[in-house]
Design goal:
single chain; 401 residues; alpha/beta; Rossmann fold; formyl-coa transferase, domain 3; 3-stranded antiparallel beta sheet; 18 helices; 13 strands
């Protein structure tokens, strides 16, 4: 891929056997930052290409979720059950910096493509396995799915309302957290290799990655014995004014957590009288009189639409946000000003997709090319490791690629 000079992982080659979301999200972060990622899929492509959200794009083998996390990659298709495919992987691994996979523990070993086999031919290889529960322990052989991990990790136990019970997050939070953890782990291993010269095995557990992001909730229990409960839309601060409130046309999420912000809130909604009310003198008394305070706030908010309150309150120093839909926030002036959404031309027209979630002064992440068709780069990748046209034709005839 052209134009990647100067990015952090330019020159790093990754063989990416991952599929669906957690693993591909991890490799996508490095691909945005310059890594040469070769996505190895089964013949016909992985299942994520055909998710049922859009029949049109599934029929193209390019479902939107697949497009979202597979840009800047190449695609090589292989039937890993065939010895000839194993030989191809061994040749590629000898030249690679990183191998990634998210199969159940032991699958790659049974194929003869696990860490021990590949590190023998390339001692500097960094091998990253992302799985539900890691490579060891009594649950290591279990499948890891986002919903299952949301339920097990404690996320669902603290998400939702006591009246209606637990609920999962509105996106695949454990997959994404695990992918972000995997990307960070790989960046760490690559940096470590610069001063040790050694490759290593990186074991990413979706359960452990999710728990790591619950560090404060874990400490609440292990240090203070506090058992987390479902708190609806209330912030972890448990402040009465850090919660969801009704406005005239919808809802407003207030993030009012300190005294200065509380004064700004009450002044802006025209209830300065509340500031002298002994029932709301401090956060403890406000909690004791929570419903009364909520009624006062919602009565005032009912006089205007949520977006108007959002502007007024933020300008006054009372943090809040109305409820933005995905289709709205991607066109927010702040998002536009930062160039968060990237437009890339492809065979199906120009598509807008997310790039990196951070910006750098130089050499930052950029989406250069859309996700490839299944096997689009098979011939080119095989040619790089010495296969001529006749050999590639034979591999195709034998249904290896």
């Amino acid at each position: 891929m052209d134009g990647k000079a100067g990015r952090p992982f330019t020159g790093v080659r990754i063989l990416d056997f991952t599929q669906v979301l957690a693993g591909p999200y991890a490799s996508y972060q490095l691909a945005l930052l310059g890594a040469d990622v070769i996505k190895i899929e089964r013949r016909g492509g992985e299942d994520m290409r055909r998710t049922p959200l859009s029949r049109e794009w599934a029929d193209r083998n390019m479902a939107p979720p697949f497009l979202a996390v597979n840009g800047n990659k190449k695609s090589l298709t292989l039937d890993l059950q065939k010895p000839a495919a194993r030989e191809i992987v061994l040749k590629l691994a000898a030249r690679a910096d990183v191998v990634m996979e998210n199969f159940r523990a032991g699958v790659m070993d049974r194929l003869g493509l696990g860490y021990q086999a590949l590190s023998t031919i390339n001692p500097k290889l960094i091998y990253c396995a992302i799985s539900g529960f890691g490579q060891t322990g009594p649950a290591s052989g279990e499948a890891g799915y986002d919903g299952k991990l949301q339920a097990m990790s404690g996320i669902m136990a603290i998400t939702g309302h006591p009246e209606t019970g637990p609920t999962r997050a509105g996106f695949a939070v454990c997959d994404i957290l695990s992918g972000a953890t995997g990307a960070f782990a790989l960046a760490s291993a690559l940096y470590q290799r610069t001063h040790t010269g050694r490759g290593q095995f990186v074991d990413v557990s979706m359960l452990e990655a999710s728990l790591a992001f619950l560090a404060t909730q874990v400490a609440d229990y292990t240090v203070a014995g506090h058992r987390q409960q479902q708190a609806g839309n209330q912030a972890v601060s448990r402040k009465v004014t850090a919660n969801l409130f009704r406005a005239k046309d919808g809802f407003l999420l207030l993030a009012v957590n300190d005294e200065r912000q509380y004064h700004a809130l009450m002044t802006t909604i025209g209830r300065t009288d509340v500031l002298d009310d002994p029932r709301f003198a401090d956060w403890f008394s406000r909690k004791e009189n929570e419903q009364t305070l909520r009624d006062i706030i919602e009565t005032a908010l009912a006089e205007a639409d949520s977006r108007l309150w959002e502007r007024r309150l933020n300008d006054a120093g009372a943090p809040c946000a109305s409820i933005w839909k995905v289709e709205e926030i991607i066109d927010h002036p702040q998002v536009a000003a930062r160039g968060v959404m990237q437009t890339v031309d492809g065979p199906h027209g120009s598509l807008r997709l997310m790039g990196s979630g951070f910006q750098m002064a130089h050499g930052g992440g950029r989406l250069d090319t859309l996700a490839p068709n299944a096997g689009a780069d098979t011939d080119a990748v095989l040619a790089e490791i010495g296969y001529d046209d006749a050999a590639i034709a034979m591999l195709r005839a034998d249904a290896v690629v």
